[in-house]
């Protein structure tokens, strides 16, 4: 086995800094939180979910990596949670 199934892992874990959902790219897990924008590296197939190891992405790079659909989905989830309260 060459590491974890990052797609399945991203559904189980959250950003250690802000608790937002993580998006999967080829070499990292990226926080979908717009204020956070941390990119956690994956080394030898193992994600390093340590804030000290993460890289803060510029907003344009973050948007390109996360995509508009991820950010709108996160906002819809937050809005849905508020309306249930």
Radius of gyration, CA atoms, in whole angstroms: 13 Å
**Biggest sheet character:** 5 strands, antiparallel
* CATH topological fold name: N-terminal domain of TfIIb
Extract low-pLDDT stretches. 71-85
User: Judging by the overall fold, what is the CATH architecture?
Assistant: Single Sheet
Question: What is the CATH class designation?
Answer: Mainly Beta
Helix content: 25-40%
Count of DSSP-assigned helices: 3
Query: What is the averaged pLDDT score?
Result: 79
Order of helices and strands: HEEEEEHH
Please report the total strand number as a whole number: 5
Q: Into how many domains do the coordinates divide?
A: 1
Structural notes for this entry:
The chain is 38% helix and 20% strand. It is of the alpha+beta class and 85 residues long. The chain has a single domain, classed as N-terminal domain of TfIIb (Single Sheet). Strands 1, 2, 3, 4 and 5 form a five-stranded antiparallel β-sheet that branches. A hairpin with a 3-residue loop joins strand 1 and strand 2. It is globular, with a radius of gyration of 13 Å. The chain starts with 5 loop residues before the first helix and ends with a helix. Residues 71-85 have low confidence and may be disordered.
Keywords:
85 residues; alpha+beta; N-terminal domain of TfIIb; five-stranded antiparallel beta sheet; 5 strands; 20% strand; disordered C terminus
């Amino acid at each position: 086995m060459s590491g974890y199934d990052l797609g399945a892992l991203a559904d189980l874990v959250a950003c250690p800094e802000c608790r937002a959902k993580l998006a999967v790219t080829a070499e990292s897990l990226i926080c979908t939180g717009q204020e956070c924008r941390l990119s956690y590296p994956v080394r030898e197939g193992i994600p390093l979910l340590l804030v000290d190891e993460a890289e803060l992405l510029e907003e344009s790079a973050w948007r390109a990596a996360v995509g508009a659909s991820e950010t709108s989905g996160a906002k819809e989830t937050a809005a849905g949670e508020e309306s249930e309260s």
